[in-house]
Amino acid sequence: MRPFDYQRAERLEHAAQLTGEPDTLALAGGTNLVDLMKLQVETPQTLVDIGRLSLGTIAEDGEGLRIGALATNTATAVHPRVLADYPVLARAILAGATQQLRNKATTGGNLCQRTRCYYFTNIDQPCNKREPGSGCGAIKGIARIHAVLGTSPQCIATYPGDMAVAMAALDASVEIASERRSRTVPVRNFHRLPGDTPEKDNVLEPGEIITAVTLPAPVGGVQLYRKVRERSSYAFALCSVAAVVDLEEGRFTRADLAFGGLAHKPWHDPRIADLLIGSEPSLALFDKAADLLLEGAESYGENDFKIPLARRTLAAVLCEATGVEP
Amino acid sequence: MTVHLKQDAPDNRDVLDGTGQGVIGAPLPRPEGLMKVTGTATYAAEYAVEGCLEGVLVTVPVTRGEVLSIDEHSVLTMPGVVAVISDERMTGRPAQGMAGEAPFQPAQEVCYWGQPVALVVADTFEQARDAAKHLAMEWRSEDAPIDPASVETEEDESTLQGDLAHAMAEAAHSVDVVITTEGHASAAMEPHAALAQWNDGALTVHASLQMLKFNRAELADSLGLEEEQVRLLSPYVGGGFGSKLGVSQEVVAASLAAMKLGRPVRVVMSRQQVFQTVERRSETHQRIRLAADAEGKLTGFGHEALVSNLPGETFAEPVLQSSQFLYAGENRLLKLDLARIHRMTAGSVRAPGEAVGVQTVEQAMDMLAEKVGMDPIELRLRNIPEVHPAKGTPFSSRKLAECLREGAAAFGWEPRPRAPRHTREGEWWIGTGVASGARVHFVEEAKARVTLRPDGTALVETDMTDIGTGTYAILGQVAGEMLGLVPDDIEVRLGDTDLPPGSGSGGSVGAASCGSAVFLACQGLREQLAKRLNVGADELALKDGFARWDGGEKALPELLGGEPLECTGHFEPGASTEDLTVSSFGAFFAEVAVNRWTGETRVRRMTGAFGFGRVLNARTARSQCLGGLTWCIGNALTESLLFDPVDGHLANCDLAEYHVPVNRDVPDLEVLLLEERDAAASPIQAKGVGELGLCGGAGAIANAIYDACGARVFAYPMTPDRVMAAMESSRPPSEST
User: Fold this and answer.
1) In which residue ranges of chain B is pLDDT below 70?
2) Within a domain: residue A43?
3) Cα(first)–Cα(last) distance of chain A, in Å?
4) CB contact residues (below 8 A), chain B span 249-278, against chain A
5) Looking at residues A147-170, what average pLDDT do you find?
6) Which residue among A118, A233, A309 sits closest to B657, beta carbon to beta carbon?
7) pLDDT recorded at residue B560
8) ipTM of the complex model
9) Containing structural domain, residue A39
10) Which pLDDT score, from 0 to 100, does residue B737 have?
């Protein structure tokens, strides 16, 4: 860990101003950032503690719900409105990390969680995300947990979180504030693909602070979060599916699906809903949905299995949601 | 006085069964348990020593090569930095278990990626950690083999008897299968740590170590000191599992720094350093061949394995250890090969050999049972050999058949040939599996001093360690049983090389070896007490603090007359096991659920039945077995060291990515302790239990996976991808997932 300056932001404007400075990072729950600082993966000169800002409220937002950026994962997962109207979100959060970590981790911090790639977290290995231009160790290395969708020759890392996958299925939005402006970005567009700039995980610019995530009006339906992993807790997803699905008269009327563990961002492909809506659920249809999902998928040896695994997990979730017998 | 026994003959007297205090074997709690769970037991790094400096090991990202120069001045101007230690006595590898001499030196000769080569010492840990990352070094690197399949191998051991190939060709039923296992980490909770102090030519080190008498010799040899100049203290050890058998790099580095600087120095390895630099269990590539007649009687048994280690290391994962005698078969071929590669040191991780060597045989036995069309327990029972199949030596004691039968009854095993895919609950296929278990028995020379204090209480002292196993409890119980004292009246002091040298904790030797030393010391005390009373030692009864003999009774304080009475017990292994096969045995039963879609496997319940001689404490013995069963789950399903194919570095070097089972992975575990007495194993008729619980059980889980979903997986750990692929290939074409 490099020595660093610690500042506490008392007001949002102050936080935005401070985090606009070079080599400055915002500290919220610290469950990811502090670990990475210990490993010297993150070496900020200044940490701006935003933990005292009044951003922890979970409140009604029209018919929807506004989750403050500093609301803890635990607070969100047990919130009565979340449990009643957005159960996929509660399930996704509870599928992640451990109770101790969820008690500290925040909404905004979780969105900004960095990849678990072994080469990213080892500063003696090449990694274009950590050190642009140094190369990618994973492509020819241990790529078991890596992406199969939207990769680039520069980076095959995944976004590791669960919460954001559910938020992508729910089509939630991220509220972002800075000194100059406020803006709202759909969760589906918040994270980015690595391309030639894998060092940028998401669209957040220096000096921008996430203030909240807003969930649209509830849509009901069957809401599932399915996370595939080697052990049953405290493990990142090999593949996960968040599903918000509804049927009327035996046909899909809603099929909002998002996928974790497959890409540098929670993966959402609108073509899948287009395919499913209006159709009768069947194994053959689910297979077609998987064809769309995995079109262009590329694997790197060790993670070849993720392609059939994604297909099977999608089928499992849709079978459970629709009652189709495999 | 000293009572010395070199055990050359079995001891059938079962003395501890006739003493009458009734504490031996009792499920007593650990005397130090409350301290451990309330954080008041002090571990190596936790001593508050005034003026203590903090050291951080510096590692190099080179697979093989040499450090040419270290620029101390690159960090000496940084805040708080006191020194850079790059003494040629620094060790780059840990000592192997019971080495008793310095591990490979100098550290600057690099043999694996991430090898520690220097130590940065500063006023605070944070300063040292930062400076360690800034230390400028020059090195040269050279190509190095890192894949065991890429090098010529050397033969480590082999047993050849009859003609296995012929037996296979003639067999009514046969199995020929290759099964692989990946590397394992010990993953002890307490990271490796040392706090060294150098005063007037005497070195005192608080460290986290398993076998102090060996460690003292290793450290002294590393430093060029006499053993008498070195004192090691390890009263509490937060798990070792083999990784603390020998001194590792932090102990030597902290000592060198303390000697050079004349100030106390603490070195605690980071979790990543523990994973990357201490030791690994070798990956294995195993071929099992079984030949059987129409009734399932084995006519041939083959077990070949390839393991790896660094050049210069003598240790080779002894995969075949129990295969030598577990099952019959007159035509035998057992062969262990070793590949020299540049991954970090391979050494003892809990139950070296059997922890990966039994489960593969047990999978092959399951396949054979299916071919014969027989209940897999019946197949095993039919093939328990009367004597060691190669040496012809009888077994000193063996509860294998009883473990299989009584374990089956407790588990609710349905005796039938296996027919997979019989039960499904929603998305989950449910199945059960069985495996035998075996772990060879060792004992090691041990001394312990027992003092009867004037107040009638007793003090037990040895440098033996308690690595979480229950040594404090069981040594107190042996003494209590022999001296007629309740455990509250016995104090046990451990983990200090100023005390008589015990066996150390490793290879499951501790309980039988140190227990025997305490037993012998107490025998000496009983003789002295009897002498005072002019009665024969066997006419003296000691119970509840009183000495009783024909016609008399005296409280111990009265008998002692204000003076302490002391005796040292000295146990040495002798010829008692020479013409015998001595091993612990067990049986494992597992029920698993396999997800039909994803291949995720969850263990729903496990039963283990174990026979390991006398049970000294039913609670701590059971606890060892529970730990073993938990290791079976990790071994079968999740644990795997991932080595980079380019430079051989260990990729998953923390507890988030090296997947030991979490609470939710571990269901209700049932343990049956089948008491027996093994007269040859030790004077207290006890064998080892610390490692038995993981010797074979992963095979029961593998067999249960097959019973559940019809997938035979031939690679451990059986992660979702592997199970999914095996389900795909095993699926009859007419069926869907």
Assistant:
1) 731-737
2) yes
3) 51
4) 272
5) 98
6) A118
7) 97
8) 0.97
9) 5-48
10) 42
